[in-house]
Amino acid sequence: LLFLSEIGGKDRRSGLILTIPLCLEQTSMDELSVTLDYLLSIPSEKCKARGFTVIVDGRKSQWNVVKTVVLMLQNVVPAEVSLVCVVKPDEFWDKKVTHFCFWKEKDRLGFEVILVSANKLTRYIEPCQLTEDFGGTLTYDHMDWLNKRLVFEKFTKESTSLLDELALINNGSDKGTQQERERSIDLNFLPSVDPETVLQTGHELLSELQQRRFNGSDGGVSWSPMDDELLAQPQVMKLLDSLREQYTRYQEVCRQRSKRTQLEEIQQKVMQVVNWLEGPGSEQLRTQWGIGDSIRASQALQQKHEEIESQHSEWFAVYVELNQQIAALLNAGDEEDLVELKALQQQLSDVCYRQASQLEFRQNLLQAALEFHSVAQDLSQQLDGLLGMLCVDVAPADGASIQQTLKLLEEKLKSVDLGLQGLREKGQSLLDQISNQASWAYGKDVTIENKENVDHIQGVMEDMQLRKQRCEDMVDVRRLKMLQMVQLFKCEEDAAQAVEWLSELLDALLKTHIRLGDDAQETKVLLEKHRKFVDVAQSTYDYGRQLLQATVVLCQSLRCTSRSSGDTLPRLNRVWKQFTVTSEERVQRLETAVAFHSSAEKILQECPEQPEAFNEMEQFDEIEAVGKSLLDRLTVPVVYPDGSEQYFGSPSDMASAAEHIREKMKLVSLKKQQLRQPEATAPES
């Protein structure tokens, strides 16, 4: 295995030291030549000009190998090598041969070759520039150097390649036209390695170089003669600066590209939303113009509209997301995109708001149509109920039920009036909305469709108006009929009441109108009261007759037969005849009593000194006859036309009245006897 140490320290001429350790194994001269070429390519030209001191460690190799290596140096670095120190082994080769050979070849080689033992090497090179293998104090770890060199080489290679790629990308972004920039960016958009990783590697490497621990171990001397000569640190710094500059430009290119891509995506989505809303979305609304002809039809249209709204909601959600993205880009403040972004935002907002307004208008229109049909249906049901009530014949039991039915009829008619008024209001509101429908028709002629809707609404309102008018006419007829029936029942009730009143008058006449008076004057008063009493009864009878006549007229008008007038009239006539017979009997008794009392009082008041006044005795006979007749009448009952009989008052009442008559008859009889006594004594004298 060929092993070469790193270029070590410096010789006394400030030249670099190259150490070539040889081993017992076979050494490949080709590999050694390549390795030397690589190591000699590391220093700068300035360093190379100061020359090299080459240490060939032959302690573990054979002389012929050492000789071959020294001769090879003539071909690889003849101008740079100033001294070759061959470290000889303890068992020295043939001194005469070796010394003579190198001395003879000195002029041809171009550099001095000396044989020296390891402990004598410090005569030519300072100990601090030699490693421990040669008795020096220079701390050197070849594997550590090799690893760091590999890192440096890798960083250099990657950073150089990355710089070329970034320069190509960045320069492509600076081309003239937008299309050329985009095409260039598309072709070279992603670098082959991660710039962040390369930058991190470079910073770590630079940190190692700045700490001057490039060739030392953690515990060794922190000093490296390679920093200035090999230009590692400046090269790394230069590469890092270039990388940072190109990477910053690259990031800006990526940012612009990302922004452009985002803007294009937003523009594409905006156009998708706009195209759908102005295309299929608007077409859906154009085809939905009807309002239905019933509640069920309007509900079906509402359900269809909800499906349309659901489809629109998905696009409105995209609109909200796009609006937020556009707002974020506007807040970023890139002036070159502000105009385009604002135009996109305005276009998107205009289309979405217009479509949302159309959806809301359609929803409100359908809701108004549903309310209109609901009111129309309720009104139709009310009219049906009212018509059904009017078609049923009225057969009330009494006037109160008729009044209740009439009140219910009036309430239903009032409810129909209110329903029709509400229908007109809903219809007019719906017509107003339909008249505004042309404002979002997108140029579509909706006159025909609107005319159908308007005709339907007006037709419903006119039909309801006609039905209501027919019901009103029927209500007027029914109201008149029911009022006549109320009047009929009232007449029948009042006629029955007249019969009752007349019956009560008859009963009062029989039971309370008993007295005949104690004298003529009182009897005349009773007679006058009786006539007035009869007048009241006559008025009652006439009132009943008029009521019964009215019932006949009302029955003829209503084309019905009265339930009570048929027996009320006979009852009224029967009671009236009974009252008439009783009244006549009462009058005859009172008139007889007046005649009796008048005649009796006249005789009793005559002076006895005038006997000539009583010459005619027949007056007394007449008084007695009238009195007896009156007494007889008191005992006779009143006989009605139907053969029934009825007495005035009770027997005791009649006995009392008869007793009073008898007393007065006794007085008249006594008076008569007094008048007869003088006549009997006169002839005797």
UniProtKB/TrEMBL annotation:
One term of GO molecular function: phosphatidylinositol-3,4-bisphosphate binding
UniProt KW keywords: Repeat
Q: Which domain of life is it from?
A: Eukaryota
Q: Which residues form a coiled coil?
A: none
Under Pfam families, the record lists:
CRAL_TRIO_2, Spectrin_SESTD1
Q: What are the CRAL-TRIO domain coordinates in residue numbering?
A: 1-142
> Into which family does the record put it?
Belongs to the SOLO family.
* PANTHER family given in the database record: SEC14 DOMAIN AND SPECTRIN REPEAT-CONTAINING PROTEIN 1
Protein name according to UniProt:
SESD1 protein
Organism the protein comes from: Atrichornis clamosus
